[in-house]
Amino acid sequence: MEVNYQLTVDDFRRAIKVYRTRTPFLRWTVRFGIGFAILVLATGVILLILAPHGGAFQNLMPLCILFMFWITIMWASPYLSARSQFRGSPSAKAPITLDVSDAGLQFRSQHTDSKVDWSAYVKWLEEKAIFAIFPNPRVFIVIPKRAFTVDQVSEFRELLRQHVKPQK
Fold first, then answer.
1. Which residues contact residue 70 at a Cβ distance below 8 angstroms, ignoring those fewer than 6 apart?
2. All structural domains of the chain with their residue ranges
3. The dihedral of CA 100, 102, 105, 110: what is its sign?
4. pLDDT tens digit sequence for 118-154
5. Interhelix angle for 56-87 vs 24-50, to 10°?
6. CATH code of the domain occupying 2-8+89-163
7. Is the pTM of this model over 0.70?
């Protein structure tokens, strides 16, 4: 099967987000952090309402500001990182032709012609709009689903399941 696509910043952002939340530990750490931040902020608001002239709210203010900063960074970091990666990579902006076969993947663009056997990939992740395939645990290649037809998405997913064995 042959597909053509051009990557966008949003493709990179989606891949970073799916990569970032790849383990239950990381997902629960973020959820716990957000829950704790909401709890601290709610406590601060309640203290402000119940005792507007007391010192408890003023004591919690630095912690509230810290958590608001943390939430902002957690929310913005995938977008900022994706934008930086996309801007810094001329090959990411060029149209790409991907040939998918039982032998592996071949990427062609004006910057590259790369044929990679399935055995070179250590894992893959899927999100609603992209596939991320990993030639090593920390580097991913983004393939947007919009490049495929509905049938091709299923076929590509099945090839990934067959050829890219999960890490142990």
1. 33, 37
2. 2-8+89-163, 10-87
3. negative
4. 989 998 988 889 998 988 887 888 899 999 998 999 9
5. 140
6. 2.30.29
7. no
